[in-house]
Amino acid sequence: MTDRHPVTVVGLGAMGREIARVLLEAGHPTTVWNRTRSRADDLVARGATRADTVGQAVAGSPLVLVCVLDYAATRELLEPVAAELAGRTVVQLTTGTPRQARELAAWAAEHGIAYVDSGMMATPPMVGRPGSAFLYSGDEAAFSRYRETLELLGTARWFGADAGLASLYDLALLSGMYTMFAGFLHGAAMVGTAGVSAAEFAADAGDWLRAMTGSLPHAARFVDTGDYTTDVQSVEFNKSALDVIVQASRDQGVAADLVAPIQELLARQLAEGHGKEAFDRIIESIRPRPA
Ligand SMILES: NC(=O)c1ccc[n+]([C@@H]2O[C@H](COP(=O)([O-])OP(=O)(O)OC[C@H]3O[C@@H](n4cnc5c(N)ncnc54)[C@H](OP(=O)(O)O)[C@@H]3O)[C@@H](O)[C@H]2O)c1
Question: Where is the NADPH-dependent reductive aminase-like C-terminal domain (predicted)?
Fold first, then answer.
């Protein structure tokens, strides 16, 4: 397989357009389709082939990348063209749940379509640039066949034959990202009550959060061993810190919606008698209990 085989991109939103552009610039004959036709104009001007229908689009290439809003839209587009897709590879870049990925993989298998699911750890300007990572799982032979092409979009990381794994990992990373940004916004609201701008706070928050990420392997050791024995950063100690943060927020007129759930998880661990154990034990309150 050369790196210049034809490729089709279905969905030219913010991400799909960048993906098609990167593939086109790398020399792949690129067929594009989008519900709103005009969104393909720029790519067509640069040499992409416009397909008038999804059926025409998928018939153009052995590799079909789908990047639309959600899985419902994906199914709406792909189900009517299952026969044309047989024998081809679909890489689903659209964000969805692991269950949706597994269901789509099962549908693809029934129709003789090779299916690879993906989680895109990138924003549109990052596509094809350093720092972009795309996570994949599903049909390993199809992934290996097109890996070189997929590497154009960002570092291609393989997670295994269970089509749901890329999405699971993607959503786990996004959970970390969302809670980090939410925490920053809570802090910005707090210092904002003293007239500090978010920009000023961002510099300090960035330094602090970067320093804190160094402790992730330490936290992971507690979780992986199930041994939360510690003589620092106990549940008790952190519960008292969260009590102060929640109270200070409210005193300043800032709602505690973002920090109060952490206080609540610590309170639960304390009530269950784990006050002397590590903060990281709050994971035991949220993860499934062994059957
Ligand atoms: N943007 C990001 O930073 C980012 C990062 C990682 C993952 N993602 C995921 O990537 C996917 C695409 O994101 P995006 O940022 O490109 O979104 P977007 O700019 O909002 O584009 C959405 C695309 O989906 C199409 N679409 C929506 N409903 C459709 C339907 N029923 N039938 C056919 N086409 C439909 C839209 O077509 P029209 O042009 O006709 O509206 C458009 O091409 C999403 O699942 C998103 O969660 C995005």
Answer: 162-287
